[in-house]
Fold this sequence. Notes:
Layout lengths: L2 H11 L3 E3 L5 E3 L1 H5 L1 H7 L16 E2 L8 E2 L1 H10 L28
Antiparallel strand pairs: 1-2, 3-4
Bound molecules: zinc ion (ZN) (2 copies).
One zinc ion (ZN) binds next to loops.
Amino acid sequence: MSQKEKTLDEFVGDKWLSFTAEGHVGLGVRSFLDLRSWFRNNDVPSCEVCNEAGVKAVLCQKEGCKVRIHQYCLGNLFAKKKGETVCPSCSSHWQYTGPKEEAVEDDV
Ligand SMILES: [Zn+2]
Ligand SMILES: [Zn+2]
């Protein structure tokens, strides 16, 4: 059995994929239900606040800190903290300018 077939078999065993009656490979039931957890387990870092895949999230500015948070989650998070804008993981200051209707380029 080749490595490729083995991997495919594991996916089918885990119900990510399924073999159809014709021997084709289709998406298994889990693929639809668990796509978000799949994101989580496959190198798409999740948002620190809501745990959804942080595809368009803001990264912590501290070097080496892997935290990323959605812009709107940042708003929720920092609104509770009354102006104390720090990274929930490394506690370094988080450059946050508040919710904006449109993205504004920061020239600093
Ligand atoms: Zn989020
Ligand atoms: Zn951080």
